[in-house]
């Protein structure tokens, strides 16, 4: 077993006890067997088989992007352009991507997924969640999850994304399909089930039926909740003990209290509000109430086509009033908690050695220098990427 000592770390954020009261300056980190074996002051670093001098850069845990829709074909650039000049975002655009995705070959979908996950890795994301939701038939949903499973670590069944056009006049039959044969075909590939609980997608009763069936199949739950308006999504997520309620753009006081008193993570997706020109979620109220907050990209061809966690951090800091430290935590540990993982998102001893080296002396530069490609190198599973 080769051990690797990373030196020349100007600032090390571990999100473990070593950080108290803040990141460690002039630090070192030892990787052994794909895991973090030691962190501490450079002056006390143990010997190792090999040394890598990082030249005075900041090191952070790799980002955990806990919400993305990456199995799709085509894009909706024209829809985006129209939106920027006044056409509001509508979930109806999902059907455009459904048609393109159904028509695409496995290899075309694989190649698009590969392109997106490689971009993510280059931007410091070392754990990715990916949903289905652009197939909406038994065959196409199962295919999406099978392809996602080949390339990402956390896979979510989202047959309940919208009611597809062919079921437009019989939504109850579509819900029966989603919680019956489609769930049976998809569950073997999935860790989680998700429902887009929103006016124009699935209502409280339909959501309840689908979540109940998915839970009975042994899947963990997550929910698209309160994205386009106030609604029952957050309350249902908490009631069902979901790992995460995602979007949380329109919350009332009861929703905030419910999240704060639960294990359900509030996953905020600031790229969506940026790309749909919508009001941002009230991250401060959630944090101040004691809710666990994650930040993720929601990368998809409709509401948000960025897969950059540094960009989302910059927006969360600038427009959602999170401190840079809160935003980094939400993009790493928060994402891990939203996926019910404790081995990623931090660099405590024993954690998976997933880390990003920044071309900057401090993680604060992620928000301070928006749009600048600051990720210098990435280690995943203890191995340098790229
Ligand atoms: O998370 N809200 C539902 N689904 C995606 C958007 C999908 C699309 O527009 O294609 C979201 O924003
Ligand atoms: Fe989404």
TrEMBL record:
Name the InterPro entries on file. Amidohydro-rel, HutI, Metal-dep_hydrolase_composite, Metal_Hydrolase
Enzyme nomenclature, EC number:
3.5.2.7
User: Cellular location of this protein?
Assistant: Cytoplasm
Q: What class of enzyme is it?
A: hydrolase
A Pfam family that the UniProt record links to this protein: Amidohydro_1
Enumerate the residues binding N-formimidoyl-L-glutamate: 134, 300, 302
Which pathway does the protein contribute to?
Answer: Amino-acid degradation; L-histidine degradation into L-glutamate; N-formimidoyl-L-glutamate from L-histidine: step 3/3
Q: Which GO terms describe its molecular function?
A: imidazolonepropionase activity
Q: Which cofactor does it need?
A: Zn(2+); Fe(3+)
CDD domains per record: Imidazolone-5PH (cd01296)
Q: Which annotated residues bind Zn(2+)? A: 67, 69, 224, 298
Q: Which reaction does it catalyse?
A: 4-imidazolone-5-propanoate + H2O = N-formimidoyl-L-glutamate
> Where does this chain mainly localize?
cytoplasm
Indicate the segments forming the Amidohydrolase-related domain, all copies.
59-365
Quote the record's cofactor note.
Binds 1 zinc or iron ion per subunit.
The alphabetical list of record keywords is: Cytoplasm, Histidine metabolism, Hydrolase, Iron, Metal-binding, Zinc
Which superkingdom does the taxonomy of this entry point to? Bacteria
Nucleus as UniProt keyword: no
Hydrolase recorded as keyword: yes
Binding of Fe(3+), residues? 67, 69, 224, 298
What does the entry list as the binding residues for 4-imidazolone-5-propanoate?
76, 134, 161, 227, 303
What protein family does this chain belong to?
Belongs to the metallo-dependent hydrolases superfamily. HutI family.
Q: What does this protein do?
A: Catalyzes the hydrolytic cleavage of the carbon-nitrogen bond in imidazolone-5-propanoate to yield N-formimidoyl-L-glutamate. It is the third step in the universal histidine degradation pathway.
What NCBIfam families is this protein classified in?
A: hutI
The cross-references to PANTHER family, in alphabetical order and at most eight, read:
IMIDAZOLONEPROPIONASE, IMIDAZOLONEPROPIONASE-RELATED
Q: What is this protein called?
A: Imidazolonepropionase
Q: Tell me which species this is from.
A: Catenulispora pinistramenti
């Amino acid at each position: 077993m080769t051990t690797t000592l990373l030196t020349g770390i100007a600032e090390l954020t571990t999100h473990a006890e070593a950080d108290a009261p803040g990141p460690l300056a002039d630090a070192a980190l030892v990787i052994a067997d794909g895991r973090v074996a030691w962190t501490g002051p450079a002056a006390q670093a143990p010997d190792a088989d090999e040394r890598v001098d990082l030249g005075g850069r900041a090191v952070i845990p790799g980002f955990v992007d806990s919400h993305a829709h990456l199995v799709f074909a085509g894009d909706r650039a024209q829809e985006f352009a129209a939106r920027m000049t006044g056409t509001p975002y509508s979930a109806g655009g999902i059907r455009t991507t459904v048609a393109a995705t159904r028509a695409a070959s496995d290899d075309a979908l694989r190649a698009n997924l590969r392109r997106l996950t490689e971009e993510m890795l280059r931007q410091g994301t070392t754990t990715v969640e990916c949903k289905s939701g652009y197939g909406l038939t038994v065959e196409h949903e199962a295919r999406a999850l099978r392809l996602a499973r080949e390339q990402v670590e956390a896979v979510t069944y989202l047959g309940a994304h919208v009611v597809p056009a062919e079921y437009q006049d019989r939504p109850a039959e579509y819900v029966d399909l989603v919680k019956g044969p489609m769930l049976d075909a998809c569950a073997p590939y999935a860790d989680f089930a998700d429902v887009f609980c929103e006016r124009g997608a699935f209502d409280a009763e339909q959501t309840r039926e689908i979540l109940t069936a998915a839970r009975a199949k042994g899947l963990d739950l997550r929910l698209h909740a309160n994205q386009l308006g106030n609604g029952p999504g957050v309350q249902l997520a908490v009631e069902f003990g979901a790992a995460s309620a995602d979007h949380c753009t329109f919350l009332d006081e009861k929703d905030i209290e419910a999240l704060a008193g639960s294990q359900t993570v509030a996953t905020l997706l600031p790229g969506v509000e940026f790309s749909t020109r919508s009001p941002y979620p009230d991250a401060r109220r959630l944090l101040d109430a004691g809710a666990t907050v994650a930040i993720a990209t929601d990368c998809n061809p409709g509401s948000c086509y960025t897969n950059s966690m540094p960009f989302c951090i910059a927006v969360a800091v600038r427009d959602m009033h999170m401190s840079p430290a809160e935003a980094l935590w939400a993009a790493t540990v928060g994402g891990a908690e939203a996926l019910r993982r404790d081995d990623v998102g931090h660099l405590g001893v024993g954690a998976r050695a997933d880390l990003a080296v920044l071309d900057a002396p401090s993680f604060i530069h992620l928000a301070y220098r928006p749009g600048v490609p600051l990720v210098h190198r990435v280690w995943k599973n203890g191995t340098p990427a790229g």
